[in-house]
Amino acid sequence: MYRYDEYDQSIVDARVEEFRDQVQRRLSGEISEDQFKPLRLMNGLYLQLHAYMLRVAVPYGTLDGRQMRMLAHIARKYDRGYGHFTTRQNIQYNWIKLAEAPDILAELATVEMHAIQTSGNCIRNISSDQYAGAAADEVADPRPWAELIRQWSTFHPEFSYLPRKFKIAVIAADEDRAAMRLHDIGLRLVERDGVLGAEVYVGGGMGRTPMIAPLIRDFVPADDLMSYLEAALRVYNRYGRRDNIYKARIKILVHEIGADEYRRQVEEEFALVKQLGIDPPAAELARITAMFAPPALNDGGAAPDRSDPDFAIWLDRNVKPHKARGHAIVNISLKPIGGIPGDASADQIDVMAELAERYSHDELRVTHAQNIVLPHVRQGDLYAVWQTLADAGLAEANLDLVSDIIACPGLDYCSLANARSIPVAQKIAQRFADPARQRELGELKLKISGCINACGHHHAGHIGILGVDRKGTENYQLLLGGSGAEDVSLGKITGPGFSEDGVVDAIERVTDKYLEVREGAERFVDTYRRVGMEPFKEAIYG
Amino acid sequence: MRIVTGNDLATGDVTWWTGQGWSRHIEEAVDAGAHAEAIAREEEAARRVNGPYVIEATVTADGPRPAHIKDRIRALGPTVRPDLTLKPADPAAGSWVI
Ligand code: SF4
Predict the structure, then answer these.
(1) In Å, how far is B76's CA from the nearest CA of chain A?
(2) Of the four, A261, A476, A525, A533, which is 20 to 30 A from A518 by CA?
(3) Nearest residue to A485 (alpha-carbon basis) of A457, A466, A514
C-alpha cells in the first residue's frame, strides 16, 4: 500500500490547520455562510437533511486495518456509531458537528487520510478495481497509476475550479469492476508489444444525461499518460460549458463537438504539454510501484472443508479466485436482507479491520457496489473468516444477486433527493429474501437513485430505479437493461412510474417474466438484450 | 401556516422558529406569517441559524405538518433508522412522514 512521504503528510496536516481556522472564523461570525460554504465543501463537509455530512476519501478504495479502525473510531466518537460506504468507494458520516470537523480531519491525518477534493468542481477521488493486485485477469496493478493521478490531481492549480466535478477511474483487467466507461475519464491499462499503456475513454457519466465514454485514444504509452491526462483536462477546462450547470460535464463537451474534434484538440495540446516534463521520472514511478508490491503469498493451506452448507453457499457466492494459488478474494456483503445498503456499524468496521490484519495482509477494499473486499486470504483461513463475519452479521451470501442492491442515501439523508431509496431497497430485498430464489435468478444488478444525479447508478443497473417527485409524492421509474461492467449499456425506462410498493411488484413481474423466457443459464440482462423491452413491458403494465 | 426552519450553525441540527428562538421540535414551531422571510434574514445574520428558509405547513392536532415530505423527514429524522429519530420510542412515528 502507498505510504505518505513528508510532502503528502505536510500538505494534509497544513490543510487541517487551515480548515480549523476557517471553521473558527465561521463560528465567530467573521465569515458568512456564502464565504464559508465553498471552503467546507473543499474539505468534504456538506450540510444535509439532518446535520453536516462528512465524506472521507478512500483513495482507489484501498485501506489498511489501521485506517479502517480509525473509520470505526470516528463513527463512535463523532457520529452515531456507523458509516455509509458509497458508490465512489468513499465513506460518509451523517451526523457531524461543524465545531468537531477539524478534530476529525486531524485524526484522519494521523492515518494518512483526508476529505480533500471529495466535493467541489475538481478532480475527485480516483476509483479503481477492488480486485487490483489480486485479480488473475489484470495486466498490471492499476493502483500505482491511480496513486500517481491522485498526487497529480491533488491541489492541481489549473484544475481546482473546473467547469464541473471530474471523476477518473483506472482499471487493468478485461472485466470492468469499476464502471470505468461511466466516468469523465476511464483508463484501462493494456500491454502492447511488451509496453504498458492505456486505452483512454473520455466523456462518460450518469446523472441527468447518461453517456458511455467513447474511446479517444486506443493506446497511450504509460510514459506519456500524465501528459495526456493534462491535455485532456486542459481542453475541457478551456471549452467546458461554465454557463449552464446541466451542460458543464465533459461528456457534454465531447458530445457537442464530437469525439473526433475533441481528440484532435487533445492531441494538439498533448504535443505542447509533453514538453513540460509532467510525466514522472522512472525512479519516482518505481518508488510508488514498489509500495504496491504484492504480498508474499506462499502456502495457502488446505482447500476449505465444505461440509457446513451455509459456508459452502457463501464460498460459492462471495469468494472469488485469486491470482496466487491457494488464495482467494473475499467479498463482504454490506447488504443484509432488510438492512441499509452500504451501512456498517463501528463494531462491524472494527471486525473487518481485524480480519484484514489477521487474514488479508492488512488490506481492505471498498467497492463501488458498496461492499468490502479482503483481497488476499489463504484458502485455509476462509472458514475462520466466514465464522467471524457470520457472528458480526456480515456473511450475507448475495454478491451480485438481486438483494445486493446499490442504493444512494436518498430522501432519508440527502438534501437533493426527490424520493427515498433505502426503503425501496429494503422492500425488494425482503420480497426476494429466499436465498434459493435469489440464486435461481442469478446475477442481477439492481441499482437505486433518489434523484436524477444518479449516485445510485440506476442507469447502469440490470434493473434500475429512479426516485422522482410527482406532485409532492414519491414516485419511482423503472429502467431495464443497463450495465456498468465491460458490457456497458444504459438502461431504458419501462413506462409510467410506480409507488414504493408498486415498484416492488413490478420488479417481481419482471423477474417472473425473465424466468419464463430465459434460455439456459442466460443472465437477466442477456435475456433482456435478446428479447427486448416488450415482453417485460407487457408483464408489468398488462 | 408559514414556518421558518434551518440548521443550527455549530451542530447542524434541524431547527424550527418558535417565536422566541429555535427548537429542534417542530411541535414548537409557530406561524411566522408575513414576517417569515424577515425573521429568517435577521436570525441568520445573528448566526442563530444557518441556511434558514420558509415552508408551508398545515395545522394539525399534533402540531404543524410541513407540506413537503422532505421537511417532514427533516422534522423527524431518517425513516429507515427509527432509533435515530426524535421519537425513537414511537415506532409509528414514521407514518407521520408518509
Ligand atoms: S442520487 Fe440524488 S438523492 Fe441520491 S445521493 Fe445522489 S444527489 Fe442524493
Answers:
(1) 9
(2) A476
(3) A457
